[in-house]
């Protein structure tokens, strides 16, 4: 499998990332262990999590996803060498924001939960305009100097702020954001493609987008409001996609999928993987069977006319 570099860092990964937000939420520890084993044994490496995962679940406090990954790593067997761990700071209430002291404390907490000495990719989960960018980048620089972080990335940054951060890093000789994590999928296109995509391509920033399957809508599981009952957790988000454009996208996915003997989800991921700006879209699964279906997208090569048909169906919005 061809590996792709994460920006200009020394890290390279297969073209699909696993979203660890399900660990401790819709996947219990046993299921999470099985998913991580299957994912890495298939040759994939990038596992994306955050300190805040999964604080939204009743009874959880946050840190559950990192702890599960840590207990999986503790089983040994070369697991740490097979995985590229990406986690985040800024959104969790006990460690909110990007002040230097908070970043230092948050990474120590994450390292302890993960049971590892280094985070491969440490990301600002969201921008924090109350802290000067040079202070935030300086804090990340110290983590790299301490050997606690290998590379840094930004999530949910605007194009203007990302460009400002990249310029500051270059001018001050600080580590730069090597990756960007935006919301991006076949339905949600404009927010990324208008300004962030050309910036990422021009500056060599890797893109690991989230909501790659639009909260499950692009799997084809939800085709009418009657289908929303299939998942109470996702019903609110999916309902927003059930419009004429969304149904047009599903029809195009169905047509391309039929030609390959594939599923709509595989085609939706393959479309992202084929995008020149995208390094590795993030997708989640709650069973090994579901995961194996998604991983097959990395081997699905779409023709130019199929990509054009999907582009046309998803235009607008």
Give a description of the structure:
The chain has 13 helices and ten strands. The protein has about 325 residues and is α/β, with parallel strands linked by helices. It has a domain at about 5-180: NADP-dependent oxidoreductase domain (TIM Barrel). The strands form two sheets. An eight-stranded parallel sheet has the order 9-8-7-6-5-4-3-10. A two-stranded antiparallel ribbon has the order 1-2. Helix 1 (about 30-40) links the parallel strand 3 and strand 4 (about 45-50). Helix 1 runs parallel beside helix 12 and helix 10 runs antiparallel to helix 13. The radius of gyration is 19 Å and the shape is globular. The protein starts with a strand and ends with a helix. The model has no long low-confidence stretch (mean pLDDT about 95). It holds the Pfam family Aldo_ket_red. This is Oxidoreductase, aldo/keto reductase family.
Number of strands: 10
The CATH H-level homologous superfamily of the domain at 4-181: NADP-dependent oxidoreductase domain
Number of helices: 13
Shape: globular
- Please name the CATH architecture of the domain at 4-181: Alpha-Beta Barrel
Helix content: 40-55%
Q: Would you tell me the overall average pLDDT?
A: 96
Rg, nearest Å: 19 Å
The parts where pLDDT drops under 50 for at least 5 residues are none
Regarding CATH, which class of the domain at 4-181?
Alpha Beta
- Biggest sheet layout: 8 strands, parallel
Give the strand order of the largest sheet, numbering strands 1, 2, ... along the chain: 9-8-7-6-5-4-3-10
Order of helices and strands: EEEHEHHEHEHEHEHHEHHHEHH
Q: What is the terminal-to-terminal distance?
A: 34 Å
Beta percentage is 5-15%
Classification by helices and strands: alpha/beta
CATH topology of the domain at 4-181: TIM Barrel
Protein name: Oxidoreductase, aldo/keto reductase family
Pfam families: Aldo_ket_red
Keywords: Oxidoreductase
Domain NADP-dependent oxidoreductase: 15-313
């Amino acid at each position: 499998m061809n590996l792709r570099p994460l920006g200009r860092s020394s890290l390279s990964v297969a073209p699909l990332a696993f979203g660890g937000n399900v660990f401790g939420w819709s996947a219990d520890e046993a299921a999470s262990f099985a998913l991580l084993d299957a994912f890495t044994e298939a040759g994939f490496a990038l596992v994306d999590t955050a300190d805040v995962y999964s604080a939204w679940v009743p009874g959880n406090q946050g840190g559950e996803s990192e702890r599960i990954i840590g207990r999986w790593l503790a089983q040994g067997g070369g697991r740490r060498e097979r995985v590229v761990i990406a986690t985040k700071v800024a959104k969790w209430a006990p460690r909110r924001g990007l002040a230097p002291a908070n970043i230092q404390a948050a990474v120590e907490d994450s390292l302890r939960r993960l049971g590892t000495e280094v985070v491969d990719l440490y990301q600002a989960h969201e921008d924090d305009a109350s802290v000067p960018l040079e202070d935030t980048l300086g804090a990340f620089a110290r983590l790299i100097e301490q050997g606690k972080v290998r590379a840094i990335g930004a999530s949910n940054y605007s194009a203007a702020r990302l460009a400002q951060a990249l310029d500051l890093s270059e001018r001050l000789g600080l580590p730069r954001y090597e990756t960007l994590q935006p919301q991006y999928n076949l339905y949600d296109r404009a927010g990324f493609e208008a300004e962030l995509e050309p910036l990422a391509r021009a500056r060599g920033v890797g893109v690991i987008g989230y909501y790659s399957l639009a909260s499950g809508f692009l799997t084809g599981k939800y085709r009418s409001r009657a289908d929303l009952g299939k998942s109470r957790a996702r019903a609110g988000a999916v309902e927003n996609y059930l419009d004429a454009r969304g149904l047009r996208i599903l029809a195009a996915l169905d047509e391309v999928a039929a030609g390959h003997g594939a599923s709509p989800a595989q085609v939706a991921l393959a479309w992202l993987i084929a995008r020149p700006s995208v390094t590795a879209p993030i997708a989640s699964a709650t069973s090994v069977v579901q995961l194996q279906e998604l991983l097959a997208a990395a081997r699905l090569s779409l023709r130019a006319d199929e990509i054009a048909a999907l582009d046309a169906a998803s235009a607008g919005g």
